Amino acid sequence: MLPASKRIVMIALVGSLILPAIGIMHGRALVEKTVTHLLMPLGITWTAAIVLCVYWTLEKQRRKAVFAGLFVVFQTLTCSDNGGTMLVQSLENRFAPVPFESMETFDYVVVLGGGSNSDESSYVWLNNSGDRIMAALRMYHLGKARKLIATGRHHGWLDVPLAGPAEETTKIWTQAGVPVADIVQLNGINTYQEMQHLRQFANQHPDARFALVTSAGHMARAMRLAASFDLQFEPVAVDWNGRGSSVAFLDWIPSSEGLEKSESALREYLAYLVGR
Fold first, then answer.
1. Backbone dihedral region of 158: left (phi > 0), alpha (psi from -120 to 50 degrees) or beta?
2. How far apart are CA 223 and CA 208, in angstroms?
């Protein structure tokens, strides 16, 4: 019988044969992407767990093999792009994209904070959720929004003086041609507080029609909280992250992108559990 170290090496070598198969079927580019994923921290731990699962199975160490196997399944379902996509889809599938051109005109289009970042130098940029800011901007320039509302401020525990989400969004909009007079800024460090401030604003504009723009995965929670404050919003879901999945091996390898999708979806479900 081969020593344990050699058996592990042989298992890894046999497993690596999948790469030539991918190259034959899909070309060199996909092989390079697959290798890159496997050499990232999540890919390394996932691959090591698979090797250990096979090794302990051959060694008849069932408990260890089951533990390693469960770790592989857990990491695949929660950290792969496909796993994260399925979680996000469970939230996003409650809404459908709406073409801006066919929308009615709203008095105010509300954009919840979270689509931008800034630094100490006052430089502002769009983050992964920046589509919500751009969607409202497009609606404004298409004549579908008479005025825009930007919400959100940074948490009070930050040590550095940064602009809040509402200020960041306003800066992006004004640089893109929206007059300051057509922008309203409201506070709130989370969605619940943002709805509180929106309720106060709506009380001052009882006849206004509002549209709510936020990420599709966040829309269900936002609309639930809006209803709890008796706010009547037309949902405009944007920033879609669960549009389609893949059967490719690459998209089942754990990655930071897949983990980010899973975490965003799980945050929504956790917020639901605590009423936020």
1. beta
2. 18
In a domain, 174, yes or no: yes
Are 151 and 111 spatial neighbours (Cβ–Cβ below 8 Å)? Answer: yes
Q: Identify the helix (H) or strand (E) that includes residue 268.
A: helix 256-273
pTM of the model: 0.81
Tokens 């260890």 correspond to: 64
How many domains is the chain partitioned into structurally?
2
Instruction: Give me 166's structure tokens.
Output: 């509402």
Domain co-membership, 161 together with 216? yes
182: pLDDT confidence band, cut at 50, 70 and 90? very high
Whether 189 and 154 have beta carbons less than 8 Å apart is answered as yes
Range of the domain at 77: 4-92+249-272
- The residues, any chain, with a CB within 8 Å of residue 266's CB and separated by 6 or more, are 87
57-85: per-residue pLDDT in tens?
888 889 999 999 999 999 999 999 999 99
Based on the fold, state whether residues 72 and 130 are members of the same structural domain: no
Question: Residue 109: which CATH number?
Answer: 3.40.50.620
Q: Tell me, yes or no, whether 146 and 232 share the same domain.
A: yes
DSSP one-letter code for 249: G
Average pLDDT of the chain, as a whole number:
85
> Does residue 244 belong to any structural domain of this protein?
no
| 226 shares a domain with 105 | yes
The strand order across the sheet containing 210-215 reads 183-186, 145-151, 106-111, 210-215, 233-238
